[in-house]
Amino acid sequence: MFVVGGHGYVGSRVVDFAREEHGAADVVSRSGGVVNGVPSVAWADLPDCMSRRTEPFSLVWLLDGAKHAEPERLAELLSAAPDWAHLVVVSTCTVYGDRGGDVCAEGTPLELVSAHARLKAECEDRVAQSRLSWCVQRLGALYGVDERGIRADRVEKWVTAAAESGVVTVPQVDHWRGWVHRDQAARSLWRAANDRVTGIWNIASANLTFGDAAGFAAEPFGARVESDGQPDPCNYRIDATASRSKGLLDERAGEDLGSAVRAYVQVRFPGRMNI
Hints:
CATH topology of the domain at 2-145 and 179-207 and 236-251: Rossmann fold
Helix content: 25-40%
CATH superfamily of the domain at 2-145 and 179-207 and 236-251: NAD(P)-binding Rossmann-like Domain
Low-confidence stretches: none
């Protein structure tokens, strides 16, 4: 398989899981090269690489938003990919918008209240109208400490704020999100690519308000959770029953948000725990 964005936060874990199973995953990056010991195919070289594949293969698409010119790059990929390619695309649960905390399944009508949600919905439509076999995964709010030290995730940011200032700021405290560990998301993407799963799938392992989610980080330090004062346009819970039943989504020990926070506190602030 090819993993477009395979040097990134989730993409690097997709590559790890793929190689654990079969030892075959090619990272695609903007200019090629090696990052953290992992080589990659340059974007400009991808069409030629795909044309040499005579057996069915999958592409996992992890470019994220306007900063990566995602719609334009996706259109280029759809034009260049052969008919026997299977495409797995990352989308977002923010396409459900403000549901007042109601539970959203894959068939819930979209409410595109942010520019990012509108862009992702546009990408979903492009994929659905393409000639390829395809899968779209709408991911919940991601967390999971990046062992490479490249990206500070929510756990690291919240715990650091709690320890250093005694205050953790989040969007509206009572607004709901579906949450998912980066490894859970990566395994789901890998399975969809490997098994050529089709359709649209919600990928979220827990539903928590921002207050409750950040509360895991605040509690060990006696910190408080406050709103950042900015309006939050989304408020929903996620029904991931279908992806669990399909075998895409699973939750392993230590991957829930509370466990992830406690593990990071123990490593980063071992002498300041009130757990």
